[in-house]
Write a structure and sequence with these properties.
It is elongated and about 60 Å long. The strands form two sheets. The protein has a seven-stranded parallel beta sheet, with helices on both faces. It is α/β, with parallel strands linked by helices. It contains seven helices and twelve strands. The longest helix has 18 residues. It has two domains: 136 residues, NAD(P)-binding Rossmann-like Domain (Rossmann fold, 3-Layer(aba) Sandwich); 104 residues, 2-Layer Sandwich (Dihydrodipicolinate Reductase, domain 2), CATH 3.30.360. Helix 1 crosses helix 6 and helix 4 runs parallel beside helix 5. Keywords: Amino-acid biosynthesis, Cytoplasm, Diaminopimelate biosynthesis, Lysine biosynthesis, NAD, NADP, Oxidoreductase.
Length: 250
């Protein structure tokens, strides 16, 4: 049995993970970490550095300000960390990458298997379409999401950008009076209601449009991907891993 220490256990995603883990016979939650010290069926600590319960992997659905303590605990106990939190600064991302030199680290901006398959498709088609198509990304989320654009929108944008040989710039929204420049990717964020997550990549050409769209109907799609990542990360060697590794099984 793979024992999970769940960081952010009392948050929205933490509760979904807790409800779904019973569908994974090889996984269990041994402890939770959350600033809200609500009682659950497993012990809950307000800080992971206070956790005295054994775990095989750390699954993080918390906030960026938990990063340092998570890395400290992971290094001390030599266990892998699955980072599902978004909104990290560039400095924090560097810390995560540096930690992968000593412990197994998993990070993905979106835990959905579908989104990551789309990301693979974008690697193949972006360079082919770029010359004759303008590229725009629209992302929609609930009104409580704190970061914009979403980590997933940036994941998709970075994949497109890295697939194109020319220099490409990001434009977040459009304001002012000017024509669109071809070598830019427009990224637009919509926030409202209870939208779980919707991402659309538009390739707009002369007389034709190609749209690649993913809609998350419930948070379960992210929880399922995260739990598969926990299975994948069990007893992995130090290094940096992502959902692409999970999809490819290596």
């Amino acid at each position: 049995m793979i024992k999970i220490i769940l960081s952010g256990c009392n948050g929205k995603m933490g509760k979904v993970i807790t409800n779904l883990v019973e569908d994974f016979p090889d996984l269990s939650i041994s402890a939770g970490i959350d600033k809200k010290n609500e009682k659950l069926e497993f012990p809950v600590f307000t800080n992971i550095l206070e956790c005295n319960v054994e775990g095989d992997v750390i699954l993080d659905f918390s906030r960026p300000d938990s990063l340092d303590s998570l890395l400290q605990y992971g290094k001390k106990h030599n266990i892998g960390i699955i980072f599902c939190t978004t909104g990290y600064s560039e400095e924090q991302i560097k810390k995560i990458q540096e930690a992968s030199k000593s412990i197994p680290i998993f990070r993905s901006a979106n835990m959905s298997i579908g989104i990551n398959v789309i990301n693979k498709v974008l690697k193949d088609v972006s360079a082919l379409l770029y010359k004759n198509f303008d590229i725009e990304i629209i992302e929609k989320h609930h009104n409580q999401k704190v970061d914009a654009p979403s980590g997933t929108a940036l994941l998709l944008a970075d994949t497109i950008k890295n697939s194109i040989p020319e220099k490409v710039d990001y434009v977040n929204g459009r304001e002012g009076i000017r024509k669109r420049v071809h070598n830019e990717i427009g990224i637009h964020a919509v926030r409202g209601g209870t939208i779980v997550g919707e991402h659309e990549v538009i390739f707009a050409g002369q007389g034709e449009t190609i749209e690649i769209k993913h809609t998350a109907i419930s948070r379960e799609v992210f929880a399922v991907g995260a739990l598969h990542a926990c299975e994948f990360m069990y007893k992995r060697e130090k290094g940096f891993y992502s959902m692409e590794n999970v999809i490819n099984g290596k």
